[in-house]
Amino acid sequence: MTAALRSRYQSSAVETASPQRLLVMLYDRLALDLVRAEAALGEGDRVEASSQLMHAQDIVLELHSTLNPEVWEGAGALSSLYTWLYGEMVLANVKGDARRVADCRTVVEPLRDAWAEAAAILSGQNAG
């Protein structure tokens, strides 16, 4: 698949995704960025690690901006978690600290799995 086709396919997938699927897609990419950043730091590639961490930070900022405490009582706790994640990623980037990236992964990956499970349940309810 050419880069242009891949880009069109990805754009279409995002544009047609349900809100819960978009959330899972963001978490999937966040987890991938953290895996890549940790690997890059392990290889001594600070430039690549920085690129991955900055993209991950953008995702966390987007996730944070969508929180609405008037709709969901858990928004405050998740806001605090996003603030912590963002700070850890900034420090990991500045210090080249793979351990901080790993710490972020231990938080992000279970959250991603939980949101994916919730999205699957919602999809099943909407289909039935």
Automatic annotation (TrEMBL):
GO cellular component: cytosol
Record keyword Chaperone present: yes
Gene3D superfamilies the UniProt entry points to: Flagellar protein FliS (1.20.120.340)
Keywords: Bacterial flagellum biogenesis, Cell projection, Chaperone, Cilium, Cytoplasm, Flagellum
GO biological process terms on file: bacterial-type flagellum assembly; bacterial-type flagellum-dependent cell motility
Keyword Cytoplasm: yes
Transmembrane parts of this sequence: none
Top-level taxonomic group: Bacteria
Main localization of the protein described in the UniProt heading: cytoplasm
Pfam family, one: FliS
Record InterPro entries: FliS (IPR003713), FliS_sf (IPR036584)
Family to which this protein belongs: Belongs to the FliS family.
Classification via NCBIfam families: fliS
Protein name: Flagellar protein FliS
Organism of this sequence: Klenkia taihuensis
